[in-house]
Amino acid sequence: MRPRGFSIVELLVVVAIVGLLAGILFPVFAQATRAAKASNTENLQKIGQAAAAYSQDADGHIPIMINGPYRNLLNVRDGVLSTYAEGRTDAWPLLLLPYLKDRSVYVDPARGDSFHVWDSPAHASIDPGYAAMGATYRNQSRMPMFGVNYLFLSPMVTPASKMSNATPSDFLVGESHSFSEAQDPANTVFYVPSQWGRVPVDETDKIGTLEITRGFMGVNAPGLWVALGASADSRYTILETGTNCSGDWCGDVDPVTPGKQTGENFFYKDSGGGNNVMFLDYHISYTKAPALAAGTDYLAATPIDGGSGNFLGGAYVTDKAHYLWNLNENFYGA
């Protein structure tokens, strides 16, 4: 006897049930996505509010990147001298913390804090519960999941008197700028969701694997190499991770391999190819990577397009009028 197949009525019932479930579940998923983006927006709003409060106390200045020599960005307690007999240096996340009063604001809700960097107050290396990858002073300075626009907001510069030192980067300090210097605040990037970047698997890995479970305090701008390279002042230091396009943006990280794998430095893209971005006038807009790289040749850029040494290549600034990362049209020669 041949087995009986489904009747038309039974099939229609199944289709109706599937449609009913889809009608119930799809709005739930959509609501969850909207909620995650809303939470991300709320975090950015709180960081912006803290930056505004800081500015009021600092005569209208934008929060500085770090408040002392880079070499003192160490895990020592408040008031305890570093190994260089100097005070501890803090980066902008710790400098804004008194205005935020909530470390969890630095965690992107869509990704969570898998390394527990923001679970508790910062630990010094001699404190009980200290974990090198966890809640330390250095990690809480360097690993928020939201990064500041590194091109101008508070870049790190080596004092001229230290440039001849064997390790001049040890003496990097933050440079201060004011909100009044901005030519077009509504079209100038301020804070964006950040990721740790591309981490090489070994010395031969030129592409790296994206590390998105940690953030980074600064986000390099597309076209950064050319922008800073055109400056008459060579003391500025560019953040980079040592992999292709790590210090810049590339529409094709690996042009030898078929298919495109883009690189956006420390900017964290969600599944939609963009993320919420705060601009210097404090408005927030969901912006995709190509739009965020407006005024550059990002989509056509590859690692061999520029840069030197460890400062690998990528996008060039091609249209200053539409570039979103500059304080004003002549800043750093961009």
How would you describe what is shown here?
- The chain has 334 residues and is an alpha+beta fold.
- It has one domain.
- It is 22% helix and 11% strand.
- It has 5 helices and 12 strands.
- The strands form 4 sheets. Strands 7-1-4-11-12 form a 5-stranded mixed β-sheet.
- Strand 11 and strand 12 form a beta hairpin.
- Helix 1 packs across helix 2.
- The model has no long low-confidence stretch (mean pLDDT 85).
Summarize the structure.
The protein is built from 5 helices and 12 strands.
Spell out the key features of this protein:
334 residues; alpha+beta; 5-stranded mixed β-sheet; 3-stranded antiparallel β-sheet
Percentage of residues in strands:
5-15%
Number of spatially distinct domains = 1
Helical content stands at 10-25%
User: What is the SS-derived class?
Assistant: alpha+beta
**Total beta strands:** 12
Averaged pLDDT: 85
Largest sheet: 5 strands, mixed
Note the overall shape: globular
Distance between the termini: 80 Å
Task: Describe the secondary structure blueprint for this structure.
Blueprint: H1 8-57, H2 92-100, H3 137-142, E1 146-149, E2 156-157, E3 173-174, E4 189-193, E5 197-199, E6 209-211, E7 218-219, H4 224-229, E8 236-237, E9 249-250, E10 263-264, E11 274-279, E12 284-288, H5 289-292
Helix pairs in contact: 1-2
